[in-house]
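Researcher: Re-running this chain for the archive, since the previous output was lost when a drive failed. Same request as before.
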Amino acid sequence: MARRAEAERNDRALLEAAREVIAVDGAHTSVASIAARAGVGIGSLYRRYSSKTALFQHLVELALDEWTEIAEQGLADEDPWNGLVHYISTSVRTGSLAPLAGMVTFTDEMTEKNTRSDKAFEALIDRAHRAGVLRRDVTAVDVLLLVEQLSKSPLIEHLQQQGRADMLDAARNAQRRVVAIAVAGLRPGDQPLPGEEPTMDLFTQRWSTS
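Model: Regenerated structure tokens:
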């Protein structure tokens, strides 16, 4: 049990570290950089994962599980709007692995987890539409892209690079305000959104490695 608990702690640390490092350096970052940020020895990491690809695949699996859980938490909220806001705000805080798109081959298990995550998220969007709290011309893809854009904060990244820990709380509060402003725009309104609705292919095709 102790080893399992330690492995789970290391996984969480690796996921958080990978998101931070990949957000700045992209998918070409070194495993050593991720391990150092997570406080995990490189030897320990390679005993658990045979390669950088195996590590990234596992990180994607963890993220998919996390996004499924967040969506299910949103669905558990009886208020459709509050449930949707929970998904967006929590997903923004946890961060995005979008820089890995096209760099990681999906396994059958990853595909299954992705399907489960998509279903929970789409149910959240459908419920908000049926309740009339989400504007009709906002699609699931719009919300996914919104989360991806809001997850990246150049201000926070710059302060971290400069070692300005004294300003990080204020920067994170500023990010929360920006998220709240953006989320308010999802409410039904009179002004239509510009252009055509984005397709799911726009969001998913970049993950293809073929």
